[in-house]
Design brief:
It is a single chain. About 0% of the residues lie in helices and about 45% in strands. It is built from no helices and 11 strands. Strands 2, 4, 5, 6, 9, 10 and 11 form a 7-stranded mixed β-sheet that branches. It has a 4-stranded antiparallel β-sheet with strand order 1-3-8-7, with no helix packed on it.
């Protein structure tokens, strides 16, 4: 069983920054065997319908960002610490959501964005951006 724990969320003013962490405990496979996806759930959205707004592959560290966060958010991973990070800068009120990390076994060259392709999810951390 893989367990993921996110932290680092909070309340910030527009233009502010946060860094989210996602610490994984793995069993059968190593952390570096998983691609990491970041998702966010705004009020009224179903988690099952979420798509990753950012992800990082398992082996070569390639990254993906959707247009709404490109240039403001940065995803990274430290396999030695079993931890993924999401640096959020220049936050906007529309970034307000519950942020989840999730893992997908494989994804060495390509990280998927579809939520159902991710095997394990964290509990989420709330990010609130005030105007």
């Amino acid at each position: 069983e893989v367990q993921l724990v996110e932290s680092g969320g909070g309340l910030v003013q527009a233009g502010g920054s946060l860094r989210l962490s996602c610490v994984a405990s793995t069993d059968r496979y190593n952390f570096e065997d998983y691609a990491i996806g970041w998702f966010r759930q705004a009020p009224g959205q179903e988690r099952e319908s979420l798509e990753a707004f950012s992800c990082i592959t398992s082996s070569d560290g390639s990254t993906y960002y959707e247009d709404s966060v490109k240039g403001r958010f940065t995803v990274s991973r430290d396999n030695a610490k079993n931890t993924a990070y999401l640096q959020l800068k220049n936050l906007k009120p529309e970034d307000t959501a519950i942020y989840y990390c999730a893992v997908h076994l494989g994804g060495s060259k390509f990280c998927p964005t579809a939520g159902p392709l991710y095997d394990h999810w964290g509990q989420g951390t709330q990010v609130t951006v005030s105007s």
